[in-house]
Amino acid sequence: MASSCGLLLLLAAGGFVSISDGRFVDEECAEFHFHGWNGWRVVDAALNQPASLTRRFKDAQEAGLNVLRFFLGDDERSPVLQTAPGVFDERVAQAVDFVLAESAAHSIKLTPVLLNLWKRNNGVPQFEEWCGTASTSRQPRPGGGSLDAQERLQTPYDWLVSPKCRDQVKKYFTTLVNRRNTITGVLYKDDPTIMSWNLLNEPRCRSCGPEAVDSWIGEMAGHLKSVDPNHLITTGAEGFFDESDPMARYNPQDRSLWASRTGQHFRANHAHAAISYATVHTWPDNWRNPPFPTSWGRQWLDAHSQVFKPKIVRVWL
């Protein structure tokens, strides 16, 4: 949602974060400054140790933090939200209700991560099993070679392009945003506690070219915006430039050009009308791009100013 503040004052529901003139703004059109953090095993804590989650929110509020990004499924030890596409385990869904209610009680906004490339729990591997693409290893471009397990995890090509698989994700999104919180009575799509939705943590399609990931992002973001027009949406991408983009010279990579061939295309991925703001991840330990923290790090972040939407550095590890 991007507009002038005058129009936003007429349209905004109480408490929703919006975008005006390239800035995050609150319901009064005052600039929304946030200090956020990534939370792990949040739903697990809500289900099994709710008092500890309440303390976590209290501590965060006292420390001046006001936005939490969290996964609806962390790892295989965490509670599993979905038993089938768009079919929730009610006990786990009520734990998510608790996360939203406690977050609101402590004036903290949320960005739930809807899907995760890397984990089966509420992630792409689980959806591949449901859709029947888990056993395929197709790459549309030659030269990718055979795939080991880690490489295959990063190459869900058939899943990304399949209409059936996309429809399963749409069903999940639609069910989630239309859920009524059992504690607050508010539909998720009407809850201003949610700042934004994160479509897919670190989408990739190794040696696929940029079309598969970009098409998926555009269609999924468009669907989500159609069933929930109130909330901001972002991609969850690391911010890699495709090898066809002159900006690819800023990617963290060696001679293998791995970052330019992840399937991400930063400028195209964030140009979709339903994508509200851009995300950038920075992993100095994993990427090992010397000399990291100063010279390259500044260039990496500055390079992303080419997209004229607000940007958030989501991960810095």
Automatic annotation (TrEMBL):
GO molecular function, one term: mannan endo-1,4-beta-mannosidase activity
Membership in a protein family: Belongs to the glycosyl hydrolase 5 (cellulase A) family.
Source taxonomy: Eukaryota, Viridiplantae, Chlorophyta, core chlorophytes, Trebouxiophyceae
Keywords: Glycosidase, Hydrolase, Secreted, Signal
Record's keyword annotation contains Secreted: yes
Enzyme type, top EC level: hydrolase
Catalytic activity: Random hydrolysis of (1->4)-beta-D-mannosidic linkages in mannans, galactomannans and glucomannans
Localization, UniProt: Secreted
Protein name: mannan endo-1,4-beta-mannosidase
GO cellular component, one term: extracellular region
Regions annotated as coiled coil: none
Glycoside hydrolase family domain sequence ranges: 16-287
InterPro entries per record: GH, Glyco_hydro_5, MAN-like
Enzyme Commission (EC) number: 3.2.1.78
Predominant location category: secreted
Signal peptide: 1-22
